[in-house]
């Protein structure tokens, strides 16, 4: 194993949160390393072909186009990125110039005093077996699917369920219905779905017979929401808040040199913009803590 390379922070996860944190650290004159297991940056935006008009300055740009812009921006400032790479081992120690050493899947080793977790969320899976006729979570697999002349059932009562109903309805299905134990979606979405296409209350899913209560379906879309995705949990145990990582106002977790940013935390409103804001907050906190160390060292040497 080669000698570890020294960094100021190791950021795990290359979505909007992690990329923003890496960019800000780079522009603040520090040396971050962004580690992303996929072959491209962008996180969940990479799987979204839909326009995301909620990001100022990116009107009409799809999630995928925004992900490409993120990658291009980091590359233009020569931000160090490892794609197709995961952390295989993480050691906490006090030697060298950092308190964490990460052994990476590409055979390299990296050290830094701070770890930033930015690995986002993943769809909550259903409690029944899935097959090719069952789609879990939003993304390109819904966008590219043909629903013409098919009976479509949607499970879930949140924004994703109702927004995807409106999308599928434009693809001329034979029938379409939402099943929700409770409805939490925005009024804007709920008001656009005929009441006869909504069932609220307990329901039974029989995937073998392709039935939900008495409704027969050809395709089933499941939108049960999101859960924290933290592959680093095997290395670092952190306090949680209702299943998401607990942080303070500076995005610091219960382990003081570990940060968590983006949708894996309990945000008041998890989205791209708030995730990017988390990245900025973490980067500034790391810069200030490093500056404090360096000033103290400089004064001691003087």
What descriptors fit this protein?
6 helices, 302 residues, 5-stranded parallel beta sheet, alpha/beta, FAD/NAD(P)-binding domain
Provide an overview of this structure.
With 302 residues, the chain is of the alpha/beta class. The protein folds into 2 domains: 5-121 and 226-301, FAD/NAD(P)-binding domain; 125-222, FAD/NAD(P)-binding domain (3-Layer(bba) Sandwich), CATH 3.50.50.60. 25% of the residues lie in helices and 24% in strands. The strands form 6 sheets. Strands 4-3-2-8-21 form a 5-stranded parallel beta sheet, covered by helices on one side. Strands 10-17-11-12-13 form a 5-stranded parallel beta sheet, covered by helices on one side. A 4-stranded mixed beta sheet has the order 1-7-6-5, with no helix packed on it. Helix 1 packs parallel to helix 2 and helix 1 (16-27) runs parallel beside helix 6. The longest helix is centred in the last third of the chain and has 30 residues, at 272-301. The chain is elongated and about 80 Å long.
